[in-house]
Amino acid sequence: MKRLSLLAAVAALSFYAPAMAESPFWPVQAKGGPVAAELNGVWKSRGYGWIVQFGPDGPKLFQTAGGACYADPRAEGDPDGTFGVWRAEGAGVVSLAGDPAGTRYIFDKLPALPAACAASGAWTPDRIVAFTADTFAELYPRSAERGLDWKARRAAALAQVSPSATDAQLWAALSGLIAGLDDPHVELHGAVGGQARDLEPGESATLTRVRAADPQGGEKAWLQAYREGILTDVLQGRGRQAANNRIFWGRVDDIGYLNLVTMGAFARTAAPDDPRPLDAVLDEALAAFAGAKAVIVDVSNNRGGYDTLSLRVAARFVDQPRAAYSKVAVGAKAAPQAVRVEPASGPRFTGPVWLVTSDITVSAAETFTLMMKASPNVRQVGTTTRGAFSDQLAKPLPNGWLLALPAELYKGPTGEDLEGRGLAPDTPLTLYPADDLSGGHAKAIKALIATLRAKP
């Protein structure tokens, strides 16, 4: 799933405005030096539920919702990597980002740290439930459209806990609060009675069927069949598996095939968002696709990762800069931040491209789908994507548990809201039929290749 501060290629302040020169970003804190003097003091984010205090020792992050506030319990001053660079946006307003090409977070200057942030009262179970409910009410995308009554959910959850509630009662209350969300970016992790508890209520229907069909082998056996189907049936033993087994590629006569199962972790010895292992494979694959009649790009089993890496792949298939989408934090009074795809300097393919998606296609694979669909040479085939575009916002709770949720609205080229809705294909194609979960994908891709080869 996508982490914060990793979205790349932003353009002008307005999604629809022409590109113009922008003010430079400056380091928040030079290496070994103090924080920029202009940042000293307290700032509140637009959206995201953050307050940050900059002082001699660097940033100190606070989490806030519903008027409550507490210091982020993580040891790092910048645990999400959001305070790397800054830029003034007006009197008492700054943009902060992990790097100049990353997601920009708008902050407004406060006169002082709110009293709630310095309060020393105990964070009892009922206060944790109230804070969690208020966080969802303020930040969860499209709550009204999804029919989510957070006021009623808050009341029901609070009825299950008291200030002296047990961890088991607290877990039950929080689980009930987020029940039925069916969102892969919502997570709750904690411990009850010394045993780890994990709640991730957003599994795709296909993966749910896979696990139900083979309780013993589970997803591992299915993934092995998926791999063999690509290498043996689709690529006829002439394909390549590369980049820490995250990429399959090859050429079937005049049709190129590129399959990515994640958008990150392309080398065991590099950071998960390091682009170099990806670039090396793309250079080789795109050179091999030169002169192909068409290329199939398959993200039908892609679980997401980093938008920066999605962008590097999409850049291999565009002929000119293309506006892909925009994003804005829920509740933020700010112009949407635009994302453009710029042509890569390395080998590219700008002929017909068929992009394969499914309900497993999620997060950075969905933003990748938007990036690809910005080009007129790309046609989406398969089934509708998962519908979870937003970066995943980490909210460590005061008791040591971890909450995560989406907190952004993504908008398509015509301004339509995308969060909670998948991207429907231009051409439907069943990839994982219930009666052939293990072999259906390879058969569908082989049929697509045959169709493309038969085209005049």
Can you put this structure into words, describing what you see?
With 456 residues, this protein is an alpha+beta fold. The chain has three domains: 93 residues, Lipocalin (Beta Barrel); 56 residues, no CATH class; 233 residues, 2-enoyl-CoA Hydratase, Chain A, domain 1 (Alpha-Beta Complex). Helix content is 24%, strand content 25%. The protein has ten helices and 22 strands. It has an eight-stranded antiparallel beta sheet with strand order 1-6-7-8-2-3-4-5. A hairpin with a 4-residue loop joins strand 11 and strand 12. Helix 6 runs parallel beside helix 10 and helix 8 packs parallel to helix 9. It starts with 25 loop residues before the first strand and ends with a helix. The N terminus is likely disordered.
